[in-house]
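Hello, quick one for you while I still have it in my head. Could you read through the record and tell me how the C-alpha coordinates relate to the sequence? No rush at all, and the record is pasted right below.
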Amino acid sequence: MRTCRASAAGKLTVVLATIVVLAGCGGGPSPRAWAASVCGALTPWRSEISKLTSSTDEQMTAQTTPAQAKENLVRLFAGAEQASEAARRKVEQAGVPEADNGEAISAGFRGSLGKMRDAYGRARDTIEGLGIDEPTAFYDGVRAAVATLNTEYDASALDTSKLNSEELKQAFDEVPECR
Protein backbone atom coordinates (compact mmCIF):
# COMPACT_ATOMS: atom_id res chain seq x y z
CA MET A 1 0.00 0.00 0.00
CA ARG A 2 2.79 2.39 0.90
CA THR A 3 4.50 1.74 -2.45
CA CYS A 4 1.36 2.67 -4.37
CA ARG A 5 1.04 5.96 -2.49
CA ALA A 6 4.69 6.78 -2.97
CA SER A 7 4.43 5.95 -6.65
CA ALA A 8 1.25 8.03 -7.04
CA ALA A 9 2.84 10.93 -5.16
CA GLY A 10 5.88 10.74 -7.43
CA LYS A 11 3.69 10.81 -10.54
CA LEU A 12 1.69 13.71 -9.16
CA THR A 13 4.91 15.65 -8.55
CA VAL A 14 6.04 15.05 -12.14
CA VAL A 15 2.64 16.15 -13.48
CA LEU A 16 2.63 19.30 -11.33
CA ALA A 17 6.19 20.14 -12.33
CA THR A 18 5.26 19.72 -16.00
CA ILE A 19 2.23 21.98 -15.58
CA VAL A 20 4.36 24.65 -13.89
CA VAL A 21 6.96 24.48 -16.67
CA LEU A 22 4.32 24.62 -19.39
CA ALA A 23 2.52 27.47 -17.68
CA GLY A 24 5.80 29.39 -17.63
CA CYS A 25 6.08 28.88 -21.38
CA GLY A 26 2.56 30.10 -22.00
CA GLY A 27 3.59 33.70 -22.55
CA GLY A 28 3.36 36.96 -20.76
CA PRO A 29 0.46 38.98 -19.45
CA SER A 30 -2.44 40.00 -21.63
CA PRO A 31 -2.20 43.42 -23.29
CA ARG A 32 -4.73 44.87 -20.82
CA ALA A 33 -2.94 43.44 -17.78
CA TRP A 34 0.42 44.66 -19.07
CA ALA A 35 -0.88 48.15 -19.87
CA ALA A 36 -2.44 48.36 -16.39
CA SER A 37 0.87 47.34 -14.79
CA VAL A 38 2.87 49.80 -16.88
CA CYS A 39 0.50 52.69 -16.19
CA GLY A 40 0.46 51.68 -12.54
CA ALA A 41 4.25 52.06 -12.56
CA LEU A 42 4.26 55.31 -14.50
CA THR A 43 1.56 57.21 -12.62
CA PRO A 44 3.50 57.61 -9.34
CA TRP A 45 6.68 58.22 -11.35
CA ARG A 46 5.04 61.08 -13.28
CA SER A 47 3.78 62.60 -10.02
CA GLU A 48 7.22 62.40 -8.45
CA ILE A 49 8.94 63.85 -11.52
CA SER A 50 6.38 66.67 -11.66
CA LYS A 51 6.95 67.46 -7.99
CA LEU A 52 10.73 67.36 -8.44
CA THR A 53 10.55 69.55 -11.54
CA SER A 54 8.56 72.17 -9.63
CA SER A 55 11.08 72.02 -6.80
CA THR A 56 13.94 72.40 -9.27
CA ASP A 57 12.27 75.44 -10.83
CA GLU A 58 11.85 76.94 -7.36
CA GLN A 59 15.51 76.27 -6.61
CA MET A 60 16.59 78.01 -9.80
CA THR A 61 14.80 81.23 -8.74
CA ALA A 62 15.20 81.05 -4.96
CA GLN A 63 17.52 83.36 -3.14
CA THR A 64 19.82 80.69 -1.75
CA THR A 65 23.54 80.37 -1.47
CA PRO A 66 25.33 78.24 -4.05
CA ALA A 67 26.00 75.68 -1.31
CA GLN A 68 22.29 75.43 -0.44
CA ALA A 69 21.25 75.30 -4.09
CA LYS A 70 23.84 72.62 -4.81
CA GLU A 71 22.69 70.45 -1.92
CA ASN A 72 19.03 70.82 -2.87
CA LEU A 73 19.55 70.20 -6.59
CA VAL A 74 21.73 67.15 -5.97
CA ARG A 75 19.01 65.75 -3.71
CA LEU A 76 16.27 66.54 -6.25
CA PHE A 77 18.10 64.95 -9.18
CA ALA A 78 18.99 61.91 -7.07
CA GLY A 79 15.30 61.56 -6.21
CA ALA A 80 14.33 61.75 -9.89
CA GLU A 81 16.99 59.19 -10.74
CA GLN A 82 15.66 56.82 -8.04
CA ALA A 83 12.04 57.35 -9.08
CA SER A 84 12.94 56.59 -12.70
CA GLU A 85 14.74 53.41 -11.72
CA ALA A 86 11.82 52.30 -9.54
CA ALA A 87 9.43 52.79 -12.48
CA ARG A 88 11.82 50.96 -14.83
CA ARG A 89 11.98 48.00 -12.43
CA LYS A 90 8.18 47.88 -12.15
CA VAL A 91 7.84 47.87 -15.94
CA GLU A 92 10.43 45.11 -16.10
CA GLN A 93 8.46 43.15 -13.48
CA ALA A 94 5.33 43.54 -15.61
CA GLY A 95 6.99 41.15 -18.07
CA VAL A 96 6.53 41.01 -21.80
CA PRO A 97 2.98 41.46 -23.06
CA GLU A 98 1.40 38.73 -25.12
CA ALA A 99 0.99 41.00 -28.14
CA ASP A 100 2.52 41.78 -31.51
CA ASN A 101 6.01 43.20 -30.94
CA GLY A 102 5.54 42.73 -27.18
CA GLU A 103 9.25 42.19 -26.54
CA ALA A 104 10.31 45.28 -28.48
CA ILE A 105 7.61 47.43 -26.89
CA SER A 106 8.49 46.28 -23.38
CA ALA A 107 12.18 46.89 -24.12
CA GLY A 108 11.30 50.36 -25.43
CA PHE A 109 9.57 51.32 -22.19
CA ARG A 110 12.40 49.95 -20.06
CA GLY A 111 15.01 51.60 -22.26
CA SER A 112 13.27 54.95 -22.17
CA LEU A 113 13.04 54.91 -18.37
CA GLY A 114 16.66 53.80 -18.14
CA LYS A 115 17.75 56.73 -20.31
CA MET A 116 15.74 59.13 -18.17
CA ARG A 117 17.29 57.65 -15.02
CA ASP A 118 20.75 58.09 -16.52
CA ALA A 119 20.03 61.68 -17.58
CA TYR A 120 19.04 62.57 -14.03
CA GLY A 121 22.12 60.79 -12.71
CA ARG A 122 24.40 62.75 -15.04
CA ALA A 123 22.72 66.02 -14.02
CA ARG A 124 23.21 65.11 -10.36
CA ASP A 125 26.88 64.27 -10.99
CA THR A 126 27.41 67.52 -12.91
CA ILE A 127 25.87 69.62 -10.15
CA GLU A 128 27.85 67.71 -7.54
CA GLY A 129 31.04 68.55 -9.41
CA LEU A 130 30.39 72.30 -9.58
CA GLY A 131 32.39 74.61 -7.36
CA ILE A 132 30.46 76.99 -5.13
CA ASP A 133 33.10 79.66 -4.57
CA GLU A 134 32.05 81.74 -7.57
CA PRO A 135 28.23 82.09 -7.62
CA THR A 136 28.00 83.26 -11.24
CA ALA A 137 30.04 80.32 -12.49
CA PHE A 138 28.05 77.94 -10.28
CA TYR A 139 24.66 79.12 -11.56
CA ASP A 140 25.93 79.11 -15.17
CA GLY A 141 26.97 75.49 -14.60
CA VAL A 142 23.56 74.67 -13.14
CA ARG A 143 21.79 76.22 -16.14
CA ALA A 144 24.00 74.22 -18.50
CA ALA A 145 23.35 71.00 -16.56
CA VAL A 146 19.59 71.59 -16.63
CA ALA A 147 19.67 72.39 -20.35
CA THR A 148 21.57 69.14 -21.01
CA LEU A 149 19.14 67.25 -18.79
CA ASN A 150 16.17 68.67 -20.72
CA THR A 151 17.73 67.69 -24.05
CA GLU A 152 18.55 64.16 -22.88
CA TYR A 153 15.15 63.79 -21.23
CA ASP A 154 13.32 64.83 -24.39
CA ALA A 155 15.43 62.47 -26.49
CA SER A 156 14.62 59.54 -24.22
CA ALA A 157 10.83 59.93 -24.33
CA LEU A 158 8.84 57.03 -25.71
CA ASP A 159 5.95 57.99 -27.96
CA THR A 160 3.19 55.53 -27.08
CA SER A 161 1.23 56.59 -30.15
CA LYS A 162 3.81 54.73 -32.19
CA LEU A 163 3.30 51.42 -30.45
CA ASN A 164 3.40 48.80 -33.13
CA SER A 165 0.62 46.73 -31.62
CA GLU A 166 -3.06 47.45 -32.06
CA GLU A 167 -3.81 45.29 -29.00
CA LEU A 168 -1.58 47.41 -26.79
CA LYS A 169 -2.79 50.70 -28.25
CA GLN A 170 -6.34 49.66 -27.43
CA ALA A 171 -5.34 48.42 -23.98
CA PHE A 172 -3.62 51.72 -23.12
CA ASP A 173 -6.74 53.59 -24.26
CA GLU A 174 -9.12 51.40 -22.26
CA VAL A 175 -7.62 50.44 -18.91
CA PRO A 176 -8.53 52.79 -16.04
CA GLU A 177 -4.93 52.89 -14.76
CA CYS A 178 -3.91 54.72 -17.95
CA ARG A 179 -6.49 57.49 -17.78
Summary: Residues 1-25 have pLDDT under 50 and may be disordered. The CA atoms of residues 28 and 175 lie 17 Å apart. The two ends are 61 Å apart (CA to CA).
